[in-house]
Amino acid sequence: MSHNPINRRHFLQSGLKGLTALQLSSLLGCLKPQKTPGFHIFWHHWEGAPLRAFFDLWIDPYNHHPKIEPLVPQRKVSFYNQSLSVPELWLKGNRPSPLLKKFLSIRGLSTKSPHLKQCRMEWFSQDLLSQLRGVDSPISFSWSSSQENLAKTYRQILGPQGEIKDLGGQPLSFLKGWHKLLNDVQRAKHPSIHLVVDNRYKSNGYFESISTFSEKDIEEQQDYYRQFIQGLEGFVTDLQKYDLYDKSIILLTSDRSRVPTQRQPVLETETLWQGLNISLLSGAIKGPVILGHLAKEHPRYSENYPGTWGHGLSHWGPAHVHQLLADLCWSTGYTESKSWVSENPWIDLKPYHSLYIKEGPGQIIDS
Question: Which of 23, 132, 243, 278 is the most exposed place for a label (fewest CB within 10 A)?
Answer without folding.
Answer: 243
